[in-house]
Amino acid sequence: MEGVRTRWAVLIAGLGVMLTGLTAALLALALVSFGIMGGFALAGWSPKPLAIYAYVGIAGAGFVVAAGPRVLRFIAARIRGASKACQTCQQEISEKIERQKQKQKQKPKQGAGEGEGEGEGEEQKKRGKGDQRVNDPKKTDARATKTLGFFHPYCNAGGGGERVLWSAINAVCERYPHYHCVVYTGDTDASPEQIAAKAKARFGVTVDLQRVTFAYLHTRPFVEAGWYPHFTMLMQSLASLILGAEALLLHEPSVFIDTMGYAFVLPLFAAVAKCHVAAYVHYPTISTDMLDKVQSRKADFNNDDRVSRSAALSTVKLWYYRLFSFLYGLAGNTASVVMANSTWTCNHILALWWLVQDSTQIVYPPCDVSQLTTLPLEGRERVVVSVAQFRPEKNHAKQLKALRLYLDKYGDDAGASSQTPV
Fold first, then answer.
1. Which pLDDT belongs to residue 378?
2. For 6, what's the count of Cα atoms within 13 Å in the CB-facing half-sphere?
């Protein structure tokens, strides 16, 4: 108990030092910028980039000074129950693993008594020697203490990423009985039973709560975009380290997988927990497309009109993006295995994470089309349905513009005739 409290105290002290250092650095940047600007002003020069650097320094310093006390108060308000939460989480994992061990010990005996041993042996032969070694009952007891952590702070969101999460957990539970799954989630308002029920209702996936433990993260608000109106990507990524630190205090897994795009947490687990880390990337935090749009000064969801019209602002933003992409690459390079959900995502990851070229694979997300195949093709209405979340990168406006161009070219009766392309 005292050790847990000590680690939390060290964490708070470290965050305080980090915020203080960042504030001092930004203030120093602002003072140096103003000093250089003053020297140029005396010489009759007034370069715009230096003015922008000074503005960034002052705005950043002000933001950190204003947010610092709020951040520390937020952590302190949750520290009171943190030690108990760590202890409870570890106890729950230990109890479930012990039950898992007992179940694995009894399973071979039951199979032999019921005449299922031969069938299980045939199944293992089909899976290969590697799985025979993994599922060897003699080794199960010794290896049942291993845990596989899934970092998914929004596991109860009910989106496509969550279908991947639950499908992956089910695959692990089915194929590797010696592993226990731990889900790091910030959905503190939902019980394990409620989360499992939603996964079943939304995706038809059954979550075995005896094989899964939920480690609840109370610092999830730190990664909310609303906290950071400027330098959002960088601030969210740095804030994810706080979320990752809390996850580490709750449980240190044998294998850690980030399934939600928080790449900066990977080196934290690799260095502190000394475990293998992996990542399933749905969408890169930054892409080469984003860099190209800023460099070409093209307005888009990630490049405001005001910035794209200014050469100075575009230059500053381009260097900011380059710095962030470099840090993003350093974090991603600590992964032992990387999985991308599409060719597009894979290509961008290979361009940014330069040390994982041989360990990156495309793993397409599961998609249940069984219900869609039962829908009749005849008697359909001429209606276009676009299914996607309302996020800037989904670019719904482009779909509307494309439809407008199509109708302008082929008229309102487009698609009515078999001669007209649809």
1. 86
2. 3
